[in-house]
Amino acid sequence: MAATTVLPRPKAYDDTFFKPISLWLTTTDHKLIGIMYMVTGILSFVIGGIFALIIRLQLSQPNLSIVDHETYNQMISAHGVTMIFFFVTIFLTGIANYMVPIMIGARDMAFPRVNLLGFWLVPVSIILYYSGFFSGGALDAGWTGYAPLTEKAYQAKSLGVDFWAMSLIVWAISGIMASTNFLTTIVALRAPGMKLTRLPLFVWAQISTSILLLVVGAPLAAAMILVEFDRQLGTQFFTTQGRPVLYQHLFWFFGHPEVYIMILPGFGMISEIIPVFARKPIFGYMTMVAALFGIVFLSMTVWAHHMFTVGMNTYVEGFFMLMTMLIAVPTGIKFFNWIATTWWGSVEFTVPMKFAWGFLATFLIGGITGVYLASVPVDTQLHQSYYVVAHLHYVLFGGSVFTIFAGLYYWFPKITGRMLSRTLGEWNFWTLFIGFNGTFLIMHTLGLEGMPRRIATYANPAWGTTNMIITISSFLIAFSVLLFLINVVRSWHGGEIAGDDPWGGNTLEWATTSPPPPYNFERVPPVHSYMPLRDLHESGEVKPEPEPEPEPEPEPVKV
Amino acid sequence: MTALGLVAAAFLLSSCGGLGGISPIFPAPVSPNGQGIYDLYIGISIPAIIIFIGVEVALLWVVLRYRRSRQPVGYVPPQIHGHTGLEIAWTLAPLAVVLAIAVYSFVELQKDFQPINNQQMKVIVSGHQFGWNYSYENGVVVHQEGSLVSDVVPFVVPVNTLVKLQFQGTDVIHSWWVPAISGKTDAVPGYDNFSWLKITQTGTWRGECAELCGAGHSTMQIIVQAMDQADYDQWVLTQLKAQHASPAPSPSHSPSPSP
User: Is B145 helix (H, G, I), strand (E, B) or coil?
Assistant: First the structure.
């Protein structure tokens, strides 16, 4: 697009982060709210990472006591809660908040003020949780907070569990608001021509994620309310006199779909990124959509696979085992379709594509170990061991976090108008890939040898070397994240100007300016397929940009 | 890929022996139910390793063969939108594999995980913060209080004897796990769980509590010692004599409704 046709942007959207605080506090714009979600997520990532490093220092050698056991139990709980509830889910909500309306050609979310409220509940939830640390001790029963360890009888001194429970109730309400908003937006506000069969796969992923969160958010809140009843009103739902295992059922009915809430948007991003850089359409669009909904359905029928050792009827266990293993089928379809998309392609391994490939290479391991864990007899050995820690990090870190990095490197130019540095990005990728596998691959073997998870220390000297390798590798991850943060801060100020469409994208977000104006589109382009922008390129209406034009704006001050 | 290299390195290291914490498989099982799990693990590993290598090689092949710098200048990829036959094939093939794994697992589940009634002896294993009590039918009670600084008191069983284990939790949930014997079983307050062991050789095996149960979780070490019948009988007599000399507090078993 010629520079002269670029519309003058409102002052609020100049591509620095420094906007008046009043604008940030009151905006109902889905893009600014999306940025706030993402920044909240990244900050939580850093905080959760610091907890992880403390955990790794503690475990680096046998019989260490860098922190005492009570503190250690608070650290592991805070690491899990922060990463799962405040980083991955929140970040993914943010990137969807930013991208979904643009990708479907809408002006904003359907309920902008619900969006505002939903976002601001997140800091409330986070502050509630961390208040626990100032109440005599935060939650120390793991992020799953199994009763009866969370009951008053075993937690008399502190209010940490109460703050955690209230935090998650607020979090669930926020998530339900966001899900309702996404579904309404996608159903009601699509641009002319954007039929459901032409939705970008990221938007389909967001539909499936929203359905999941809408269904399982309430059971989470219910479990937390019952925990509070037990603690503050003296009921006996989950106490030693009650039914502690009922808590596990309620929690995992939320908890397992939550795993897919954290990975389906990632699948969506990968499905956007791979076709763009392979210069081929996604292979099997309809089976990709069907696979998403297969996962949605199956994920709500597998929760008790977290409970194979609590003593259930073996036929019930067999049912949950079968349903869990069946999830490998839709996931396999997605894997094969992604590979087929690149087959015979002209694949450009840019940083987002590298992260997408890193995701495939590592998530595969998480998927395969998931089948071992689904098998009830094998699970009775592996359950609650370091094998599970390795598995869950392969799906949540190798899966979700790698897709988050892929998505960020891919969409950062759209969000800020500037490219992330490619050199730093390459360093970021390779240090993360090596650090990640160094940390988590040998964790499997510790679990096989009998190291349980969530132990504050261990006496077995044979595990020392392995744990030391893991700890050193975990600091490589920390270094990589530091590189990433430097990259984001530097590029936001002084990165290369991106232009509207730096990658040669397929979907509508690349048809507007970077960053998009408050109304997103001057004129929504016609939509004739699931790759509307590519159709425009081919019909000659919009030429792919050969060279990004310098923006006609004053250079931001270099720091 | 790095992952592959590390897997290879892990296997290589473990074959050298000596080093701990890098075994690609469970410790050698000493009880038939542990053996069943061990065999199942190997059975799953066969398709798992084939699929792992196949997919990683395909990923690598794309990196090597289809990268833009390896394609001719001006190459326009074929615009393929899908292939019904292929998509059906890679739906059905994984389905067949996981169904086979599920059937094998289910057979093992029925074989070794049903509560047994033909036991030769029964021990009630009760977990508390932070330790285990083992109550034998002959009146012996072993108090295995948690410790990290020294070895805990061993839970002694005779070899080649089918021992039924009945798990009870008195406060929070604990989980009894000795990897060389079998999988773990939770000790849940309110109802009893069951497992069994039949150790085939004399020796000592270690385990730990596997369910986070509070600040002393990591101290809840487990030691199981298998003795010849004669040694075991001798051990029982010594225990009974010691208990008569200084009666230990009898473990309080909460009334247990069936699950």
Answer: strand
